[in-house]
Specification:
With about 475 residues, the chain is of the alpha+beta class. The chain is about 40% helix and about 20% strand. The chain binds flavin mononucleotide.
Amino acid sequence: MNETVSIFGIEDIPLIKTGDDLPSIILTALKHNNQTLEDGDILVIAQTIVSKSLGRIQNLANINPSQEAHRIYEKITPLTKKSGLPIKSPELIQAILDESTQVLKAEHVLVVETHHGFVCANAGIDQSNVGGKDLITLLPLDSDEEAEKIRYSLQKLTGKKIALIISDSFGRAFRIGAVGVALGVSGINPILDKRGDKDLFGKELQSTIVGQIDNLASSAQLIMGEADEGLPAVIIRGYNFNFDDNATIKQILRKKELDLFREERNTESFEETLKSRRSYKFEFSNRIVNEALIKKCVDLARWAPSAHNGQFWRYIIMEQGNLRENLIENMNKRLKDDLIRDGKTEDFIQRKSEKTKSSFLSAPYLILLCLDTKELEKYSESERERNEYIMGVQSVSASATYLLLAFEIKGLAACWYCAPLFTKDIIKDTLNLPISFIPMAFFTVGYPIKESPKPNRKDLKDIIFKL
Ligand SMILES: Cc1cc2nc3c(=O)[nH]c(=O)nc-3n(C[C@H](O)[C@H](O)[C@H](O)COP(=O)(O)O)c2cc1C
């Protein structure tokens, strides 16, 4: 039971610069105010000063907005203006995109999911509390790690056992007003699971889980304030909790599959996604593609149907570099020979091979999809064996379609190329693939710089037959 909890700010913390040692600055400020840390204290530190000390600062003047950022700018600016909110420049939008894995809403606000898995406006990027008109602060890359470092350093310097929370303020769905939330934690469990406890009338609680560190971050916010960073570190004393050295903010992030609201949104927009996916055959933006995002899309492609759930697909992810260059050069030699045999003109052959080369070499990622024949059923009759092979190809194609849709959902552009089918042996040799792998397709992947034209589709009456 918490009888009395006191919350007080640590005064006289100076403006923080890159490289500053936060634990010693906090201790100096405490000493200056004749305060000390005590066992069981919870120290809440504003994310801005952690970001600044880590140098997580960017100058908008150095950001080159992609086509995607310009597209979002065109879309949201009239809505932002109408709501009386500050207009986001394409540079700021690009910075937000760089910190995000997914844009969830691009309306008068830009709500994204950050690389950490936080769903928040503007990827937590702050333009206030940082000097210079074009300077912004980004969230720490790993707030748990920073919380842990600061906590252990303070514990070592003072001999006191404390918990630490790095906080920010987020707006909320359904309610107006930003409140304090925890971004990183060390020493205290993010949640307080009350299930199994008894209520006032002795009835067992079935579902109560308290967001303990968000409550604490929010109470610290009461005196931290928003507009300036006068009190960026706050001590909460007297709160009764159990120490937990394995605490991580991940414990408080709701899994996507349990997030009812995201589910609903995805269902609504699924039809849209099916229609908006396009084969992207242009130059890609120079925006860096996060490999984790590519892997996430392959993860989704695993959920495609496959004949007797054989999952015959194998994805080989190739970054730019020598291996890819060698491969494309070898494949191009074969392409030229084939085209000569077809009687094509030298000019045609030159253009075709240059085009192939630039598509495959310039894409930020090139993915090779193979069919692993090791997993196919074996039959004594050749007809059944052939059908089994076709089922393998069909299954791999289903996964490829899932992959393209996953790219679309994540804002990536891609195109399916059949070139590997015509150069199977060359690919297997150059990449030293297992004998059972049959190259099936390439996918070029990256961020788009323009919109692909929408090719027409056959009329329904030409493809549906009712008997
Ligand atoms: C099996 C398969 C092979 C493909 N191979 C190529 C290719 O080698 N080169 C290419 O430019 N596009 C290729 N594409 C992409 C098609 O051109 C594209 O899907 C089609 O024009 C329809 O456009 P959309 O995907 O934007 O709807 C391939 C697509 C599939 C499904």
